[in-house]
Amino acid sequence: MIIRKSQREIEKIAGAGALVAETIAHVGSLIAPGVTTAELDDAAGRFIREHRGLPTSLGYKGYPAAICISPNDVVVHGIPGDYEVGEGDLVTIDVGVTLDGYIADSAYTFGVGEIDGEAQRLLDVGQDALETGIEQARIGNHVEDISHAVQTVVEEAGFSVVRSLVGHGVGRHYHEDPHIPNFGQRGRGPRLSEGMTIAIEPMITAGGADIVVADDGWTITSADGSLAAHFEHTVAITGDGPRILTPRVGVAARGPVLR
């Protein structure tokens, strides 16, 4: 069942979304060679709680950390631990925050220091795909109008969308209907209507679309070891067009490479 939100509820989700964006920027400012993903996760959890929020991922279906941190070939759901960030890495920060009973969700892939040209192109295409998908998030369009737009941008660049992972509704719950695939045909899927709040999230790789789930049950990597990128916004469908409820701030607003 698709849950449509009132204007008051959308503002509540936007409040959570602002904290999500600030958390991504805060953690991004700490990413540097030698820092561990556990240290970044600790910083994220403290920051969220200091701002009256709750890290939605912690304990969700047994997930053991405040946020997901996914380096290099990890597509999503990387569990923070003793991995030390290195020069040239790609590091995805994926944050869900619950604030005043409402949830927002966003992800951003940072490049660390000097990254190679193909890695930078992957980041650029991921961001372009997200922006192009969001443009289709309009009243009267269909879910797969978003999906098709994302797929077109990614595949025309020679990269792959991960087909077994999807975006989703979000707001009252972490994962709501509808699913938002990153591939599809125009005019298919549920029709978009005012009050829907959805997480649009291209998950792409520089190689093939196949993935592998690790023994921990969470960490999902590209099957061929290729680099992955993941960009996500929570978006409201409004009469004035798509409204991004997790707008970028800080280092995330300035670009994908940390120097």
Main β-sheet description: 5 strands, mixed
For this structure, the quaternary state is single chain
* Global shape: globular
Number of helices: 5
Query: In which range does the helix fraction lie?
Result: 25-40%
User: In terms of per-residue confidence, which ranges show pLDDT below 50 for 5 or more consecutive residues?
Assistant: none
Overall pLDDT confidence: 97
Number of strands: 16
- Provide the domain count: 1
| CATH class type | Alpha Beta
* CATH level-two architecture: Alpha-Beta Complex
Query: Which sequence of SSEs, written as H and E, runs from N to C?
Result: HHEEEEEHHEEEEEEEEEEHE
Give the topology, please.
Elements: H1 7-30, H2 37-50, E1 54-55, E2 68-71, E3 74-76, E4 90-99, E5 102-112, H3 117-135, H4 143-156, E6 160-161, E7 167-169, E8 176-180, E9 197-200, E10 203-205, E11 211-213, E12 220-222, E13 228-230, E14 233-238, E15 241-244, H5 250-254, E16 257-258
Parallel strand pairs: 5-16
Antiparallel strand pairs: 1-4, 2-4, 3-12, 4-5, 6-10, 7-8, 7-9, 9-14, 10-13, 11-12, 14-15
Helix pairs in contact: 1-2, 3-4
Précis, in short:
With 259 residues, the chain is an alpha+beta fold. It is 29% helix and 26% strand.
